[in-house]
Design a protein that fits this description.
The chain starts with 6 loop residues before the first helix and ends with a helix. The chain is built from 9 helices and 7 strands, in the order αααβββαααββααββα. It is elongated. By secondary structure, the chain is of the alpha+beta class. The strands form 2 sheets. Strands 1, 4, 5, 6 and 7 form a 5-stranded antiparallel sheet that branches. A two-stranded antiparallel ribbon has the order 2-3. Helix 3 packs antiparallel against helix 9, helix 5 packs across helix 7 and helix 7 packs antiparallel against helix 8.
Length: 309
């Protein structure tokens, strides 16, 4: 017993300490008993908050470690380069040689990828080329073709090959369409020439009737006049068709597809997704921290139950 301290005071202090400790243990046991008596899945928000509060340090540390690990993985992850070439679709008679959606869809076909691989030559990462080859519309007559390569030089080579394959396919169509246009224009000119000659010959006959040198029957004159009127209409249609075809052959309305990148595809470095790696690491760290916290609580609960028995 300490000097100068009454016996009753020391006893009261000791009793208060023991009583407070006993009350704390009883409260803890009561909380655990309430949690054990709950039905499956009946967890209050306060329980979750208490759980997080008890293990906030553990969860935070594991999450930070996961974020650091994600950042490290992003630094060592291999990066790629992407080359993009833009092709302007040619026109025939002021109409696209093929619809823009068709050109975009064709880039994703296996046949197009095979032609690009053959055009690019060796060595070529055909797996990367086939997987990354894609196209997107730009405006009303532009197609942006993109493809990835392990180096900037490979990306340029692959994008150039894809552009050349697209240009060849479209320009072959334009060549065929131009041949048909020229053939149709020649036919229209010939039809116009024949109609003009026929009208001229009938005009000579009608001139003779007017001069009185020829005296056909009235019915014959009426039929001839009707035929001349029909011929004039045919001549007008043939002339309009010939003018339309000739106009379609002008360079302003019929021209081949061409690249608008001056022969040099745009090359950009493809990021390894550093932010995504870090965010993924943080999320995985939080989940791992929660699992560790649950494991610690389960182990502590098992130890308390074993001591109570």
């Amino acid at each position: 017993m300490r000097a100068g301290v009454p016996v009753c005071q020391c006893a009261g202090s000791r009793y208060g300490t023991l009583y407070g400790s006993t009350r704390t243990e009883e409260f803890s046991m009561q909380v655990e008993s309430n949690l054990d008596n709950r039905s499956d899945g009946d967890v209050a928000l306060t329980d979750v908050l208490r759980f997080i509060g008890r293990h906030v340090v553990l969860i935070s540390v594991v999450a930070v470690v996961g974020g650091i690990a994600g950042f490290g993985v992003s630094r060592i992850a291999p990066q790629a380069w992407e080359g993009t070439s833009i092709v302007m679709i040619g026109r025939v008679g002021n109409e696209l040689i093929e619809p823009l959606p068709n050109a975009v869809e064709r880039v994703g076909t296996a046949g197009f990828a095979q032609r690009v691989v053959r055009t690019a030559g060796t060595p070529v990462r055909d797996d990367m080329l086939r997987a990354s080859l894609r196209a997107a519309p730009r405006g009303t007559d532009l197609v942006a073709i993109s493809v990835r390569g392990p180096t900037s030089e490979d990306a340029v080579r692959y994008a150039t090959a894809a552009r050349d394959v697209m240009l060849k396919a479209q320009n072959d169509k334009i060549s065929d369409a131009e041949e048909r246009l020229r053939s149709d224009a020649a036919s229209a000119d010939q039809a116009l020439e024949r109609a003009v000659k026929q009208r001229d010959s009938w005009s000579v006959y009608m001139k003779g009737v007017a001069d009185g040198t020829l005296k056909p029957q009235l019915a014959e004159v009426l039929i001839l006049k009707d035929m001349i009127d029909r011929t004039d209409a045919q001549i007008d249609d043939a002339r309009k068709r010939s003018e339309k075809l000739q106009r379609s052959l002008r360079s302003t309305e019929t021209y081949a597809s061409q690249a608008i990148d001056d022969g040099a595809p745009l090359v950009t470095k493809v990021s390894a997704g550093r932010i995504k790696f870090v965010a993924g690491g943080l999320i995985l760290g939080v989940l791992l921290g929660l699992l560790c916290a649950v494991g610690l609580d389960m182990r502590a609960s098992a130890q308390r139950k074993s001591v109570a028995r």
